[in-house]
Structure formats: structure tokens, C-alpha cells
Amino acid sequence: DQQVKQNSPSLSVQEGRISILNCDYTNSMFDYFLWYKKYPAEGPTFLISISSIKDKNEDGRFTVFLNKSAKHLSLHIVPSQPGDSAVYFCAASDQAGTALIFGKGTTLSVSS
Amino acid sequence: DVKVTQSSRYLVKRTGEKVFLECVQDMDHENMFWYRQDPGLGLRLIYFSYDVKMKEKGDIPEGYSVSREKKERFSLILESASTNQTSMYLCASQFRGNQPQHFGDGTRLSIL
User: Fold this and answer.
1) Beta strand residue intervals within chain A, DSSP E
2) How close, in Å, is residue A17 to chain B by CA atoms?
3) What is the pLDDT of residue B64?
4) What is the rounded average pLDDT of the residues A78-87?
5) CA nearest B42 in A: which residue?
């Protein structure tokens, strides 16, 4: 049973607009959440994280929102750029914060 | 910057062979991980290690073993390679719990 779900396999956005990537989780013990970006033939690159004591974390163009009651998090990219085109993975871990459970990924395409 | 180096980018082996995948990190991180990435399945954890000579099974350990004799090096071993182990293998390291994991560029392994 999938504990971390990214229900949209793909998303297309125009350059300059907002990209919103969504992620749902089922395990209430998850305590730490991360987003990674992956280009083809490269390893995932860490983007941004959030712990369960917060509901928002920002880093430049990237903002992650956490809604614990809904077991939902989202990644907002504003403004979107063509270089943001990649696969985005949501991941979660429990309080130990070691092993990560990944979603299956969402492919973002940003057109100019 | 954290550097996680995987010994091979591409590898082709035959069924039944014993295969070694090597990973080295240069940041004195405590924790190291092996994942495999398959289309439509995201990243799945095979094994991880939180200290030298210590290991923990992940979600899909069958057919694999690991070795961590030195803190900076974590090896994944396919005891008798099979075609269903054809995949992209990703190594990651982590300073400690509740910190981001940092990934290598992956090894694309084909078992013929």
C-alpha cells in the first residue's frame, strides 16, 4: 500500500506562471517531508523540506505547504522557469528521520 | 557541497554473476542508503546503514546484501544477478536523522 502518493503523473505550465505539485500521505507517524528534483541520468537533488511542527517553508522560488489534518503537502514554484522541467519526488520519514518513503513522482514541463 | 560518488554510471552483467556496486561519500555522514528507481514505481529503499558494520533492511532487500567496512563507503551486492534486477541504482548519504539525503548520479545496471 502506497504511503506517499503523487496522484498527478505529469503537469504542464507556462513560463512565469505558478507550478503546484501535490502529495498525499497516509501514515500519521510521518514527521519530516522533503521534495527532490530529478533530471534524466542524474541523481535526485534536494530542494526543500518541512518538519511537522511547521505548515510552511520558503526558499527562494520554492515554497512547501503542509496540512497535517489533511495529510497533504504541496510544492509551489513561482515563477516557473524552463529549467524547472524535471521529475519531482515527494518523500517522507518518521521521527527517526532516516529511511525515506518516496512518491512515484510528477513530471513537470515548463514551456517558454 | 556533499559529494556522493558511485563507481560506475553504466554496467552490464550476466544472470548469475555476483555484482558489486560501490558508493563513497566525502562528508563524514553517519547514514548511507541504497535505492532502486524503476519507471512508475519511484524510488524504493533496498538497505541502509547508520554506522560502520551496521545495516538495516529496507522495503525490497531480497536478492541483495550490503557491506559497510568504512564510514565513507557503502557497497551493494547482488549475490546472483537476475534480469528483474535491471534498474537504476541510487546511493545516498545523510549527516544524521531529519536531515536531507544527498544522492549520487546513479548506476544504470543491465542484467542480460
Assistant:
1) 4-5, 10-14, 19-25, 32-38, 45-51, 56-59, 62-67, 72-77, 86-93, 101-102, 106-111
2) 27
3) 97
4) 97
5) A104
